[in-house]
Specification:
The protein is an all-alpha fold and 79 residues long. The protein contains three helices and no strands.
């Protein structure tokens, strides 16, 4: 997997809290901080995407949404 380097600025408190959290979980090895940030970003994107989808679908009847899901799953399975 290719990687991109990020330069981030966080508060000293956040830095210390995260490093202590990782150390308490047996972490502190090379790459632990990067893995934690990557997982956190992916999780947050998923959470925001789900909220957005729910907001977009709020005005639709459940049957319409279920039919759209079934159609998408059928298309994906054929592909």
């Amino acid at each position: 997997m290719s990687a991109t380097r990020w330069n981030l600025v966080v508060s000293t408190k956040t830095d210390m809290t995260l490093r202590q959290f990782l150390a308490n979980r047996g972490g502190g090895r090379k790459g632990d901080l990067s893995r934690f940030v990557e997982e956190a970003v992916q999780s947050h994107i998923l959470e925001l995407s789900a909220k957005e989808a729910k907001a977009q679908n709020a005005g639709h009847r459940p049957k319409v949404i279920e039919d759209a899901i079934d159609e998408a799953l059928g298309w994906a399975r054929r592909g």
